[in-house]
Amino acid sequence: xxxxxxxxxxxxxxxxxxxxxxxxxxxxxxxxxxxxxxxxxxxxxxxxxxxxxxxxxxxxxxxxxxxxxxxxxxxxxxxxxxxxxxxxxxxxxxxxxxxxxxxxxxxxxxxxxxxxxxxxxxxxxxxxxxxxxxxxxxxxxxxxxxxxxxxxxxxxxxxxxxxxxxxxxxxxxxxxxxxxxxxxxxxxxxxxxxxxxxxx
Length: 200
Hints:
Oligomer: single chain
Strand content: 25-35%
Helix content: 25-40%
Largest sheet: 6 strands, antiparallel, barrel
């Protein structure tokens, strides 16, 4: 079994593609001179089956993954390999009589890098922002109720603009998350629909 965000899928094979772009220039004699090597995004090709898991129908899982794919939403894949900050670039399904209510699938997930804004606020503006933020944080706490398809990464991205900040949310809600995952062979960051988290 593997996880895409909070959705379990049965994966039969995983293939990682790691490529580089190499630029070279011809010279008068001998082989070309190579002057630059640039890493390409990692691509993960997986195939397997989508079946009913617990009370979640296979069609619900399939539709949720299709939604992540078609709307270009970030995913975290956890299987034999782990891929964060990724997009599903292709998702093909095949329905056969052998899988009752489910389907076979082929999928490609590609690592992405997000460009950061070059804009920097002036010192005066940033001071004002800090004062406003501190007043807001003392007046009330923020809470978020987990929806289908959420993961700590996507929640952190929503509130902080950076999915890598997810440990803040985990640490603020560690007791609740650990209690729910106790006794299950799942990643410690696994969360479930309906959980209510404090956003620090």
